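The freezer alarm interrupted the setup, so I double-checked each line after restarting. Inputs confirmed:
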Amino acid sequence: MINKIVNSLAEAVAGIHDGATVLLSGFGGAGMPTELIHALIDQGARELTVVNNNAGNGETGLAALLKAGRVRKMVCSFPKSSNSYVFEGLYREGKVELECVPQGTMAERMRAAGAGLGGFYTPTAYGTQLAEGKETREINGRQYVFELPLKGDFALVKAERADRWGNLIYRKAARNFGPVMCMAAATTIVQVREIVELGRLDPESIVTPGIFVKRVVGVATPQLSS
Amino acid sequence: MINKIVNSLAEAVAGIHDGATVLLSGFGGAGMPTELIHALIDQGARELTVVNNNAGNGETGLAALLKAGRVRKMVCSFPKSSNSYVFEGLYREGKVELECVPQGTMAERMRAAGAGLGGFYTPTAYGTQLAEGKETREINGRQYVFELPLKGDFALVKAERADRWGNLIYRKAARNFGPVMCMAAATTIVQVREIVELGRLDPESIVTPGIFVKRVVGVATPQLSS
Amino acid sequence: MHRSLTRDEIAKRVANDIPDGAYVNLGIGLPVLVANFLPSDREVVLQSENGILGMGPTPPENEIDLELVNAGKQPVTLVTGGAYFHHADSFAMMRGGHLDIAILGGFQVSATGDLANWSLGKPGVAPAVGGAMDLAVGAKSLFIMMEHNMKDGGAKIVERCTYPLTGIGVVTRIYTDIAVIDVTPQGLLVTDWVAGMTRETLQSRTQAKLAFAASPRALN
Amino acid sequence: MHRSLTRDEIAKRVANDIPDGAYVNLGIGLPVLVANFLPSDREVVLQSENGILGMGPTPPENEIDLELVNAGKQPVTLVTGGAYFHHADSFAMMRGGHLDIAILGGFQVSATGDLANWSLGKPGVAPAVGGAMDLAVGAKSLFIMMEHNMKDGGAKIVERCTYPLTGIGVVTRIYTDIAVIDVTPQGLLVTDWVAGMTRETLQSRTQAKLAFAASPRALN
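Predicted 3D structure, all chains:
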């Protein structure tokens, strides 16, 4: 019998190794897996490469992971927010590396990883600083930049509802990076507000089929962090 | 006011020009836009390049379009079926050209067109006849084939339900190529079993947002062809 | 003497140029104001990069949902007919040319439509681009809304951008507090300007060379 | 003397090798039979290339739905927990290494795991590949089910394929009517064979060189 439900956050994040690449869903606060991130802090993995659209805010969630000194490198499109002082401080002191990737390229690189592609050409960032040193190519008269897949060892994702097969639905704009990150990681770990019986999710409306999910943990009243 | 609903099949297929590339949804019979194809036959466009997973069956739908001599070239993954004699006869006589594309590469090439990518590397077909003459590249120790986007001038798609903005949902495995074809064509034309009031489709469950759709026509009891 | 448009007046003018049925993405900052001035007899569908098509106005305080925010992470709503989707689909929509118009703020626009709007190139500051480069290359038309000049009076419409680029040759039209300028293959063409301004004054406030439409419209 | 397994017996053996919880794609032809023999105490999730995860058995005649078909366009059902998705997502699933096992028929398999199963290379016949090449490169394990020999007795397990290739070095294991053979970096390794067959007979029916496990299991 397939049962991806685990009983604790600790069990959910077990096995995340030092040096792992960890994809974190969320756009600002919407879709941030706060409890999984805090469990990861307790779990203790170090030297992480973390992929998230932003670079934390305040001192909970991703900012707490950064503050705890667990992150060697951030991959994000917009490491600025109203209170991103934890990241900014570490960045100024040279304690965390940053790879700034245009947001659509970041999403597409993860999709490419999930879809088994070797790379792709995008027009985004051609001729800009963010494409410096990258291979370019003219295709049908337009200039493109070559981008490689961005694969995670783990993904920590927040969704709304799951069943024991790991089928997921999301809620409103909290969907954002969740579905591509589920595809792009070797081990995808999901926190959901509600776990439902198999068959309760409409097969026409499942956004992430269970094949992309390894572990599910219920967090009924998640905390907001961004 | 946005109103993409047109009142007749003739209006739906108006403007398809000779020499156009036309994407046809469907996998066998499931998702085939039979009535739109028959309207295209009546409309009269010639020298078409048609993209469909298969190459018609019996003498209705795509087979009828082929039989009417309107197709210069088929792009498909599997131009064989129990009764694909119309295509086979034309192919033997050299009256229709065939580009055989692995099914996943075909879907991905259309997605790339819809997503504005210049091309991508896929491991599929590396070292086979279907990659002969194509650029290859080793990426992280694996061999890939370079593929270009596949863009349609028009897509004829069958879906289940639409609203006046062109938001779509599909039904069961009739979804197949519909969503990627909607993205990949300059003008996407959709036949649906049912047209509903704006707001009746669940925003969490819309599969194709209306931005990818130009015209919608209702066909309450579609005919099966494949 | 001439007067300059307020930020709201620029937004209103841009809003008036958006046709019924257009799919539009409004960037963070000045462009967001455009939503307040869309004529009520037009249906304009707003896209938000974080997976929303059919974005509606700010909700009342008691209806705020932190899982329904815009690109600037501010609470918004969904209009009737709207839809949610994931990030890869959202940027496919942007990059794939499906948006009719993207409207962004700008630091500089060049005579050939290059845009600089994401970085001042200050050393030591972490680069942060968000979705700006994807929008710049993707939309069918790219409108830039900005003050015509920097606070110190320096030109923002220039022969060549000196700030780090967002995209090359991507700008369609520039809306400022004193003029509307089309980027054409022949260069920059002023189509509208505020009453009472001379060509010389407008050119003097613009580093790039301007051409003028035969009969420029009044901007107000 | 030895006997050969029937098609159903091959399918039953393959089914027994599929672990609980596996995500599996069954190719057209012989592999489809595997679905009939999956042990009832295991949950195995079947994927169909046309956008189904959790494909169930053929429905009774009065419940046939022509919008719910498998890769061979035959009517199927959806099991509890199943989901529908579009073609790009379906092939992302296949190509991206998310399937545990793909099971395909074969014309030829080489000593190094090359597969030929889509074309006999006859001139004048339209090429038709379907999803075979995507499955061949994508799944974590690729099982080939086929008769050990051609009808005329010719070998199908060969040093090098002579038919057009489906994929290079892609096959994990071969199931035939007389043996189960692993493709290993050292070459082909027989792990199971039918009782009463000698190594010499098995080798004589196989063009590629075979090695034998220390104690091969009985295949029945």
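Quick read of the result. The first strand of chain D starts at residue 23 and ends at 26.
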